[in-house]
Design a protein that fits this description.
The complex is a heterodimer of chains A (346) and B (614). Chain A has 15 helices and no strands. Chain A is mainly alpha-helical. The two termini of chain A are 20 Å apart. The chains are: A mainly alpha (346), B alpha/beta (614).
């Protein structure tokens, strides 16, 4: 029963003070008793001679494929209602982004000066702005644009930062140094100012907002990916893959990358909120998306002037939508982390 | 405390049941366990992984995981009801009255604090000595655990000490407050046999001299029987046998104890003896595969019938490196009549030595630092390996045996020397380029840790298919799958397990997947890097037998790297004993084990725990 170094040896290597060692409650350095009771042992004990087909067949039938994923998700949700809430909220946002524009009661761009600056009412749930546009419709329609900016920028940064980081962690040496210095350079700027600069320099378009958001997030992804890949560089399965005739690139993409995907997914969810905020922030100061397009940042910017005169709803509702979206992605990230963390899979 | 019976045991665990709440419902880790430890007694708890031996000790210390709880039974320590005690009382008890030594000494020490300070922390916590005497007391403790130059070592950080040294520091920590009960949870599992011997003797001596009681938790029946007064054998959370160690070793009464005894490699038994009585054919799949190779065996059927060593017919290899490339040196080697499969000559691996200390003082030293010296991990070793032969490479950690095997595997480059494989100088090919050569398929490896060597994201079938897809001939999906199934049958892995992920397989099953992957391409040479070190003894017995059978049926050669002479003996024709990068002794297995020439070999043999009263 040799202590097998696991991928998550980080937890075990955690400094365990002598105090906690003798007084017990130190987590980490002693193998969880559960790991010794795990599903493995029953068969092991019997010895391989008695690899009982019947036991395994029935017991693991539910343990593979889609059903298992569902079971696991349900377990996590039942244990953590907040994650369930976040998932529900996420579904709502996706729904608003996909079908919202077809469902909203008013044209988000149509102005109606007769109904300008009306507070929330039965006809206009979130009220109207200075041009008489329905704020509810605009908030819902804006979801698609904001969501799209966030998703594409996160996807882009995953491709750039994630892959660069994995390569840096895996190859080390020069690759590592170059990626590391790029990340350091980006981190040397206040991120929002850097994003402003990039959009200002490259041109005031939505694509450049996406690009700028991706670039400022680059160090986060590169570092997480680098650390994860670095740990796995010397893993046994890696050597085994080399013995099987896999080239370096193939090991990187087929062996290492799938193993760090769960962590990257968590990272993506967490940065999604930031990406939305960043895009809205850029729009707020007049970069990126331009009026009259419905976008949360612009709407907040437009409504800000009316706050003083008491027309709070113009800025409030898009701001609330923004907050809910960011909140949702952060909760989701926490929930996903729980789901992918094997330490919590007890 | 009032005596209920005569005499009062120091620790009385009665009818203990511990349950863990998991997502699959409640798991009973320990059921109705009774353990009694008298004053000054050493009790061994023996069992394989999952037998509940550690959980029992955690319950005694009340350091169970959040998910675990004691549902039944009682634990009395010097009359105190541990179940009912408050957390505060327990905190006071742990460390001062009972303490624990853990399996991995390095993980149990705080890496960024000096070891002396860590001992002081414990003393301070239980206010054993006044603060002015702390340092002296800590040094005294280090001295007691036989750490040389304790005054200097007081300032050492854990990473500066060897594994055995770290374990000594952990023992010093555990004994700092003179507890009445010491629980040692696999205290020597990660250590070399010679270190194991000194550490165990130290524990026994110190506890005896202080009249302490000890619980030794181990999977090694031999170790328990050597050092304990009584042995408790656990299986599946239950105590199956409790007896004085002499009785348990000479006349085990429970079938499980007998099975454990049989499976433990020891002098004077053969591989087959390790398997449980009446278990002649270890795998139902074997006779089938052998007598009537299924039509699915793509090109491998001829190999299946091939007989072992004396036949010098080279394994038919489909790779194009056939005759023309055979160099003159190959011809020279063949000229001797028996051409060895592998010839290693004066192999050297050097690493640049890290500057010692690395302190600031050194960095700012006036003289420029001298050129970093090199450290020779492997220092000019030479040996040969004939076709169909098994050679054991034995040595303790750090002796260079793994470096040697990875060089032969062409995973790292050599510094100097020659590695000839079947007449080709493979040592000259850079490790990076070797991965895609056709030669690659002829040298494969079984890794030490079956869990670590399987990609957690790949199913068993995908793992076995990897070499076939990359280097094999079969490219079509069905053909690859068929080959995987044949291999699974050969290694005795039930076919329905092929679609599982590593975490859904047991240790033994993972080992089988690793072996299947290694033999997928019908290699000529398989390097076995401690293939059973991470397995329970009963599983080890089965895996060793499997390896032997595969060798006989496929005509492979093995280079068996291990620290355990007893295991090597079972599988190998010849043994090389390595120490500090050099081969100190080599020869036929029987000769090395019965009449070792080198002192080091004798030490190794003597360090293996075997009870003397057998």
């Amino acid at each position: 029963m040799r202590m097998v170094p696991t991928r998550h040896s980080g937890a075990r290597a955690k400094p365990a003070s002598p105090e906690s060692m003798t007084t017990g409650r130190g987590y980490g350095f002693r193998p969880s008793p559960l790991s010794r009771l795990g599903r493995n042992d029953a068969t092991e004990r019997k010895g391989l001679t008695a690899l009982s087909h019947e036991r395994s067949a029935s017991e693991f039938a539910h343990n593979t494929g889609f059903a298992a994923a569902l079971r696991h998700a349900r377990y996590i949700l039942s244990e953590n209602a907040v994650t369930g809430f976040a998932f529900a909220l996420f579904l709502l946002i996706v729904l608003a982004a996909v079908v919202g524009p077809y469902l909203v009661p008013y044209d988000p761009l149509a102005s109606d000066t007769a109904a300008a600056l009306k507070p929330p009412s039965a006809a206009h749930w979130f009220g109207t702005d200075q041009l008489g546009r329905d704020i509810f419709s605009r908030v819902v329609v804006a979801t698609r644009l904001d969501f799209l900016i966030a998703v594409t920028s996160v996807a882009l940064v995953f491709l750039m930062g994630g892959l660069a980081g994995v390569a840096a962690g895996f190859f080390g040496g020069w690759t590592d140094r170059v990626v590391g210095r790029i990340a350091d350079t980006i981190m040397a700027f206040p991120l929002f100012v850097l994003a402003m600069g990039i959009v200002a320099a490259l041109g005031n378009t939505v694509e450049n907002v996406v690009l700028a958001t991706a670039i400022v997030n680059f160090p986060l992804y590169a570092r997480v990916a680098r650390a994860e890949a670095n740990v796995r560089r010397e893993a046994g399965f890696d050597l085994a893959a080399r013995l099987c005739g896999n080239g370096e690139m193939r090991i990187l993409l087929a062996q290492i990358l799938p193993n760090i995907m769960p962590i990257m997914v968590v990272q993506m969810s967490l940065t999604m909120g930031y990406a939305i905020l960043n895009a809205a922030g850029l729009s707020f100061i007049g970069l990126g998306v331009r009026p009259p397009t419905a976008e949360w940042g612009i709407m907040v910017a437009e409504g800000a002037a009316f706050m003083v005169s008491g027309e709070w709803w113009i800025a409030f509702f898009p701001g609330a939508a923004l907050m809910v979206a960011v909140f949702c992605f952060n909760l989701l990230g926490d929930g996903l982390r729980d789901i992918v963390d094997p330490q919590r899979r007890t | 405390m009032k005596a209920m019976t005569q005499p009062v045991p120091l620790l009385d665990v009665a009818d203990l049941t511990v349950e863990f709440t998991t997502r699959r419902g409640v798991v009973r880790a320990v059921e109705h366990v009774d353990v009694r430890v008298g004053k000054g007694e050493t009790v061994g708890i023996v069992g394989e992984s999952g037998s509940g031996k550690s959980v029992t000790s955690y319950a005694v210390m009340r350091i169970l995981d959040r998910a675990g709880r004691i549902v039944e039974g009682a634990v009395h320590f010097t009359g105190l009801d541990v179940r009912a005690a408050s957390e505060e009382e327990m905190r006071d008890l742990r460390g001062r009255e009972m303490s624990m030594i853990f399996q991995n000494p390095r993980a149990a020490l705080n890496p960024i604090r000096k070891v002396g300070r860590q001992i002081e922390d414990v003393l301070e916590q239980h206010s054993q000595v006044g603060s002015f005497a702390l340092t002296e007391k800590a040094i005294e403790l280090l001295d007691q655990v036989r750490i040389a130059r304790p005054r200097e070592r007081y300032h050492a950080y854990p990473f500066e000490l060897s594994g055995g040294m770290c374990q000594r520091v952990v023992i010093a920590l555990a004994l700092a407050c003179r507890p009445q009960l010491l629980i040692a949870d696999e205290p020597t599992t990660g250590l070399d046999v010679t270190t194991q011997k000194t550490v165990m003797e130290l524990i026994v001596e110190l506890t005896r001299e202080r009249g302490m009681s000890t619980i030794l938790i181990t999977h090694d029946l031999g170790l328990a029987a050597t050092y304990c007064d009584r042995v408790v054998v656990m299986e599946k959370g239950r105590v199956v046998e409790t007896a004085p160690s002499r009785e348990i070793f000479t006349a085990p009464s429970h079938p499980y104890t007998r099975k454990l005894m049989r499976a433990t490699p020891r002098p004077g038994v053969s591989l087959r003896d390790l398997l449980p009585e009446g278990d002649v054919g270890p795998r139902p799949a074997t006779p089938q595969t052998r007598s009537a190779p299924s039509p699915l065996v793509g090109g491998g059927s001829s190999l299946l019938q091939e007989t072992r060593p004396p036949t010098l017919t080279p394994t038919p290899s489909p790779s194009p490196h056939g005759g023309g490339e055979r160099t003159e040196s190959a011809a020279r080697l063949r000229g001797n009549g028996r051409a060895p499969l592998l010839v290693v000559e004066k192999l050297v691996k050097e690493y640049p030595r890290k500057r010692l200390g690395g302190r600031f003082a050194q960095k700012f030293a006036r003289n420029p630092a001298p050129e970093p010296e090199t450290f020779r991990a492997v220092d000019g070793i030479s040996f040969t390996l004939a076709r169909g032969e098994s050679v054991g490479l034995v040595g303790e950690s750090g002796c260079g045996k793994s470096t040697t095997s990875t060089m032969i595997m062409r995973l790292i480059d050599k510094s100097d020397g020659v590695i000839m494989f079947d007449g080709e100088d493979i040592g000259a090919i850079p490790a990076n380029a070797f991965a895609k050569l056709p030669l690659r398929r002829r040298i494969q490896m079984v890794f030490q840790d079956p869990t670590d060597s399987l990609n957690p994201r790949f199913t068993a079938a995908r793992a076995i298919a990897d070499p076939i897809l990359r280097l094999g001939d079969a490219k079509r999906r069905e053909a690859v799958r068929a080959r995987c199934e044949t291999l699974a049958a050969q290694v005795g892995l039930p076919l329905h397990l092929l679609d599982r992920f590593p975490h859904q397989l047991s240790g033994g099953q993972k080992a089988r997947v690793g072996i299947a992957r290694a033999i997928a391409l019908n290699p000529d040479l398989v390097v076995l890097d401690e293939p059973t070190a991470a397995l329970d003894v009963s599983v080890q017995a089965v895996v060793l037998n499997l390896l032997q059978e595969l060798k006989e049926s496929l005509g492979m050669s093995y280079l068996f790297v291990s620290h355990d002479l007893n295991v090597v003996r079972l599988l190998c024709d010849r043994v090389l004993v390595m120490r500090a990068g050099r081969i100190v002794e080599q020869g036929p297995t029987a000769q090395i084990l019965t009449s070792p020439q080198a002192q080091y070999t004798r030490d190794l043999l003597a360090a293996v725990p075997h009870p003397t009263f057998a």
